[in-house]
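dumping this here so i dont lose it
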């Protein structure tokens, strides 16, 4: 069955930009710092009350993020094929776009942790800072893996679209069943692949127009059915109603969330596109789209600096730090969010130049590209497992640079066309 080729969509771009902001807001709300008799205490503010559950229903946008990533990647890959370029070219471009800014932020984190040690900051606080910095990097590792597999999964989609996505979703459910029945929590981390690959695959359907081609009634039934199943899973205790808990490790509940989000987006696509065409909305979309990965990678560094600065001021009796989730804490959230978003946006302007660097064009053997993707993914996984410290940051940066070197052709040619945005349509 022939499908019209996907085109850039302002609704997709706007929703992608909003997803980036939602991630920053959610992580900002989860940063908790208080002053105790033993010194500053850095904790997850979400653990201090029930409030995170309803907030997670609004701000847990990662399923939609990966759907849009699938839309963007599938669109970009098809256009590259139209220009006579290969799946290896696609993977090489993604490696450069992801690992260049990642190497910069991880290297900066390593230097910062070293300076904290020289300044006499207690080792346990430095370890907490490194741990908090590394937490959001799971997205980088998983997204790199998904994008590296995209050409192969695009071929599988064209050959057997429903069998492919059902196979991935079924594997995610099977992992949840095995995890629950065996009690081996580590099994759940297999869904770092199956859950997010399922969401990426759903983005292929959206890019081809298959979802929008369904009747409104069908999309309402599918979205409503997924929401009903999600509610039943929460009530029966199959899955936690806290969508943040369902992300570490990922569960199949996130697939249902992604179906609800995608159905809602498809139903509201026309009014979203109309709103996105407005001058202010378009300016916001353009600003975030051009530096989406930079904002994602650097926002936790901004939050840690703000938390550390707050702790320092509190230690000097220049600032009062209320207990997380208290009334006084909530009253201070608007200013905290404004600072977090504002500073992140400000530093993203110069730092996005790294993200915007164009990869050299030339032939890279498929084996080298695959090795680069594996090494790049492993570099981030190492930080997640071992924690971020001066030593691990240096090792991770070395691995990233090695991956970039592998993904660089020995002979280069000028870039023939503008490179598509990483998370947006080409």
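and the seq i came up w/
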């Amino acid at each position: 069955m022939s499908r019209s080729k996907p085109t850039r969509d302002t609704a997709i771009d706007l929703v992608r930009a909003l997803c980036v902001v939602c991630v920053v807001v959610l992580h900002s709300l989860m940063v908790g710092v208080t002053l105790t008799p033993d010194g500053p205490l850095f904790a997850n503010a979400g653990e201090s009350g029930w409030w995170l559950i309803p907030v997670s229903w609004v701000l847990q946008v990662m399923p939609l993020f990966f759907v849009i990533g699938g839309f963007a990647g599938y669109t970009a890959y098809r256009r590259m094929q139209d220009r006579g370029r290969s799946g290896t070219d696609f993977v090489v471009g993604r490696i450069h776009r992801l690992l260049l800014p990642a190497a910069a932020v991880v290297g900066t984190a390593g230097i910062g942790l070293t300076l904290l040690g020289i300044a006499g900051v207690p080792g346990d606080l430095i370890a907490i800072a490194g741990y908090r910095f590394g937490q959001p990097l799971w997205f980088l590792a998983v997204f790199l893996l998904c994008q590296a597999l995209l050409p192969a999964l695009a071929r599988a989609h064209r050959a057997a679209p429903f069998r492919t996505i059902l196979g991935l979703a079924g594997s995610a459910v099977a992992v949840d069943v095995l995890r629950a029945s065996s009690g081996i929590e580590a099994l759940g981390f297999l869904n770092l692949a199956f859950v997010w690959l399922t969401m990426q695959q759903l983005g292929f359907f959206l890019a081809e127009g298959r979802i929008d081609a369904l009747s409104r009634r069908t999309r309402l039934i599918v979205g409503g059915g997924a929401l009903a199943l999600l509610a039943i899973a929460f009530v029966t205790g199959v899955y936690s109603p806290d969508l943040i808990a369902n992300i570490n490790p990922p569960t199949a509940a996130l697939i249902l969330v992604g179906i609800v989000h995608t159905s809602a987006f498809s139903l509201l696509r026309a009014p979203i596109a109309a709103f996105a065409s407005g001058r202010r909305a378009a300016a916001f979309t353009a600003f975030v789209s051009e530096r989406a990965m930079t904002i994602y990678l650097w926002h936790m560094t901004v939050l840690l600096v703000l938390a550390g600065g707050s702790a320092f001021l509190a230690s000097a009796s220049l600032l009062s730090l209320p207990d997380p989730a208290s009334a006084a804490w909530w009253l201070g959230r608007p200013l905290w969010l404004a600072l977090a978003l504002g500073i992140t946006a400000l530093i993203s302007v110069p730092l996005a130049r790294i993200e915007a660097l164009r990869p050299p064009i030339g032939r890279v053997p498929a084996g080298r590209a695959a090795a680069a993707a594996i090494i790049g993914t492993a570099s981030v996984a190492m930080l997640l497992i071992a924690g971020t410290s001066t030593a691990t940051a240096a090792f991770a940066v070395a691995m990233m640079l090695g991956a970039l070197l592998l993904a660089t052709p020995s002979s280069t040619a000028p870039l023939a066309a503008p490179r598509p945005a990483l998370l947006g349509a080409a």
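Confidence is low (pLDDT under 50) at residues 1-6, 413-421.
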